[in-house]
Amino acid sequence: MKQTLKRIKELLFLVTRDNFKYFNRVKDPDVVLSKLFKELLPYLDRKRKSWLNRVLKVLENYKGLPEKRKKELLKELHTVFTLKFLPEEIERAREREIPRERIISKREKIERKKTYPIEAFFQEVEKVKGIDKRRLNRLKKLGIERIIDGIYYLPFRYEDRTTVTPMAYLKPNGEFLVKGKVVNVSELQTSKKKKRILKVVLYDRTGSVTLLFLQERVLNYYKSLFKKVKELGREVLAFGTVKRKTSGFEIVHPEVEILDPHKGKLEKLGTILPVYHCAEGIKQTTVRKDIHFLIKKVLPYFPEYLPKEILKKYNFPEAHEAFWRVHFPQDEDVEELQNFKSPSQKRVIFDELFLFQLAIGLYKQKVKKEKGISFPIDEGLIEEFKKVLPFKLTGAQEKVLREIVNDMKSPEPMNRLVQGDVGSGKTVVSAAAAFFAARSGYQTAVMAPTEILANQHFKKFKEFLNPYGIRVGLLTGSLSKKQKETMYKAIKEGYFQVVVGTHALIQEGVEFKNLGLVVIDEQHRFGVKQRAELKKKGRMPDVLVMTATPIPRTLAMTAYGDLDVSVIDELPAGRKPIETKIVFEDERRSLVEFLRKELSKGNRVYIVYPLIEESEKLELKAATEMFHYWNEKLKPYPVGLLHGRMKQEEKDSVMEKFKRGEFSVLVSTTVIEVGVDVPEATVMVIEHAERFGLAQLHQLRGRVGRGDRKSYCFLVTSRGIGEDSVKRLKVLESTNDGFKIAEADFLFRGPGEIFGTRQSGLGDFKVADLRRDYEVLKLARKAAEELVSKNPELEGLDNLRKLLSLRFGKKFDLVGVG
Ligand code: ADP
Ligand code: MG
């Protein structure tokens, strides 16, 4: 092996050296290399072997490659061989590797019958012939109402009963399949209860395992069986959880099967068992039987619905085959299967994501076809707005503003999401859009999720727009009935060109004179529905959604898949990164000292703690306790208190005092998350930081660092929170980039956590896991986009069209599509 390796490395060195100086002198490196690689193969461990096999495939087409690719390939080979093919390492890897033998029993084969159209599978499970009441009830408990639900009720894990592990490689507490000959059969009695125990020892040359049978009922049967097997010298397969005892490995009540050379087929072993989620009171074996019963009845009739080109392009099995193999795996690569990467699983995951992306794509297209408003915006108007601004727009703001202007000018309705980190300056950009709308004679509605935020937007929009004589109004739930009525009237008559508000904006009584632009500050709190409701207040207004929490690309593609996305990925100049540090409880003293030092410089401090429970009493108690604690510690600096149970006026007055400096410290619940700009605030202390999501912590941190002084953020937590939580918080220490943080939050906590469970309702998938299946998502999105642009009517794809409308018809109003 060493010799072959040496020759390979020498050859690769020669062709690549001195920037391929001798490239043309070496004749047919592919032929020589292929020969050497094949010699090397038997000496490699599994990982290297499969890599090299792939390389061999590539080399088959070497001659057809352009020179550039050839060189790249050789260069890569050279690097890999130098770094990863050291003889000692190869030997070590081989030693550590478990020799694999797979025993596969006959496949459960699908017998393809005639196919039924897809809608047949949207019928109730009751319609399946031969299904009894009890089974039906059990399926319902699993949430399986329609046949398709059963097909989509996929295993979340697989138990491998096909791979034989040599006994020397067993590990305690794992489930293993072993194969060996019977060397001993004996019966014991427990000393206390006089119960009989059967002990059978299996041996496979690498070691031994003891099988134990304790049930009286089966004891005699197994005893005579194993005695006979021992006489005949037959091999036995045993599967179960391996325990380590002083006497060696043992398996209690294994599943066993005798390998009979005359009878090829195995009954229990040699299969990969799917494991399904169970409902309360239903056993795994029963769930498996029920699902398999259903699958066997219906899948043979299941039609294909994906376009042929897609199946071919990605080498996917057909639908019935794919679902069958996911429910009845047999000879698949176990590792692939367990990582949800088998061809059938990929197809099934692809299906789910593709259908969703297709639904979104068609919906977007449908919206685009509708005639929206074409705002007459020219350069003069843009300049007019920019001239009055007290600052110059950043490059990113300029870019996004252009995108918005293009959308607004076009007669297609705008549906755009503007993402931008805290303080990146989204508000100005949306104010510009409102300005253009007003100058074109249209009204703008700006909807925010909370009153505080609505108030803040109201102030900002007034600041930006009043200089142009544009009237901005505020409509929130806390207005009196009379005030509301006055507002309604003024909105309807078009007195206000811009109306900022909360949910109050989508109440029935609200009517606009001519709503042309809808701005929604999302903060993940509105769904597609609310967006649509506000839109209905006008005739095809343009829609601009803003979000301050950067959304990982993965999620943007799904949760916001129906929107075009713009990103403000640059902060206004002069912002200094905020220094962030985790502080453990036992380091509090130095934190207090630090705060006093900052305060003595005239800087201000936020101290935030999480809502402990949604109980008024508890919250009040927590708030007051915190307040007293900090008041004591930071004397004589004045401390203010702000919490959710205070009236709006109280909140405003506390905030105002903090802004003016009458309070140097503000102790608060998360209500300041969307608070007012206070440039003198330089320190943000977050108590029980582990209870917040990263995105939220990042938002809170964004409250400081708004002036030109150096700012700090302290994440206070206890040492007992566990490694993962510390790791999570460390992300904040390491970066100020909201996108990186969002990506990390997503990986740590999953999409549900970021959005909250009730979130937009988009992107909750049954099979796909966006963290695991990002690559598939990209493929699915691309395929869906291609199909929408090539065949928007889905001509010749009846099943696909029907499937879409059956699954997404309501959600996307797709019934009329296609
Ligand atoms: P966001 O809504 O994205 O959190 P804002 O629009 O509230 O950010 O902007 C944050 C602060 O930065 C505001 O005080 C705003 O006036 C200011 N600002 C916005 N754009 C710029 C810019 N290009 N240059 C300097 N300051 C800016
Ligand atoms: Mg438009």
Automatic annotation (TrEMBL):
<feature type="domain" description="Helicase C-terminal">
    <location>
        <begin position="587"/>
        <end position="752"/>
    </location>
</feature>
<dbReference type="InterPro" id="IPR047112">
    <property type="entry name" value="RecG/Mfd"/>
</dbReference>
<keyword id="KW-0227">DNA damage</keyword>
<dbReference type="InterPro" id="IPR001650">
    <property type="entry name" value="Helicase_C-like"/>
</dbReference>
<dbReference type="Pfam" id="PF17191">
    <property type="entry name" value="RecG_wedge"/>
</dbReference>
<dbReference type="GO" id="GO:0003677">
    <property type="term" value="F:DNA binding"/>
</dbReference>
<keyword id="KW-0378">Hydrolase</keyword>
<keyword id="KW-0234">DNA repair</keyword>
<keyword id="KW-0413">Isomerase</keyword>
<keyword id="KW-0067">ATP-binding</keyword>
<dbReference type="Pfam" id="PF19833">
    <property type="entry name" value="RecG_dom3_C"/>
</dbReference>
<dbReference type="InterPro" id="IPR014001">
    <property type="entry name" value="Helicase_ATP-bd"/>
</dbReference>
<dbReference type="Pfam" id="PF00270">
    <property type="entry name" value="DEAD"/>
</dbReference>
<dbReference type="GO" id="GO:0006310">
    <property type="term" value="P:DNA recombination"/>
</dbReference>
<dbReference type="GO" id="GO:0005524">
    <property type="term" value="F:ATP binding"/>
</dbReference>
<keyword id="KW-0547">Nucleotide-binding</keyword>
<dbReference type="InterPro" id="IPR011545">
    <property type="entry name" value="DEAD/DEAH_box_helicase_dom"/>
</dbReference>
<dbReference type="InterPro" id="IPR012340">
    <property type="entry name" value="NA-bd_OB-fold"/>
</dbReference>
<dbReference type="InterPro" id="IPR027417">
    <property type="entry name" value="P-loop_NTPase"/>
</dbReference>
<protein>
    <recommendedName>
        <fullName>ATP-dependent DNA helicase RecG</fullName>
        <ecNumber>5.6.2.4</ecNumber>
    </recommendedName>
</protein>
<dbReference type="Pfam" id="PF00271">
    <property type="entry name" value="Helicase_C"/>
</dbReference>
<keyword id="KW-0347">Helicase</keyword>
<dbReference type="GO" id="GO:0016887">
    <property type="term" value="F:ATP hydrolysis activity"/>
</dbReference>
<dbReference type="GO" id="GO:0006281">
    <property type="term" value="P:DNA repair"/>
</dbReference>
<dbReference type="InterPro" id="IPR004609">
    <property type="entry name" value="ATP-dep_DNA_helicase_RecG"/>
</dbReference>
<keyword id="KW-0238">DNA-binding</keyword>
<dbReference type="InterPro" id="IPR045562">
    <property type="entry name" value="RecG_dom3_C"/>
</dbReference>
<feature type="domain" description="Helicase ATP-binding">
    <location>
        <begin position="407"/>
        <end position="568"/>
    </location>
</feature>
<comment type="similarity">
    <text>Belongs to the helicase family. RecG subfamily.</text>
</comment>
<dbReference type="InterPro" id="IPR033454">
    <property type="entry name" value="RecG_wedge"/>
</dbReference>
<keyword id="KW-0233">DNA recombination</keyword>
<comment type="function">
    <text>Plays a critical role in recombination and DNA repair. Helps process Holliday junction intermediates to mature products by catalyzing branch migration. Has replication fork regression activity, unwinds stalled or blocked replication forks to make a HJ that can be resolved. Has a DNA unwinding activity characteristic of a DNA helicase with 3'-5' polarity.</text>
</comment>
<dbReference type="GO" id="GO:0043138">
    <property type="term" value="F:3'-5' DNA helicase activity"/>
</dbReference>
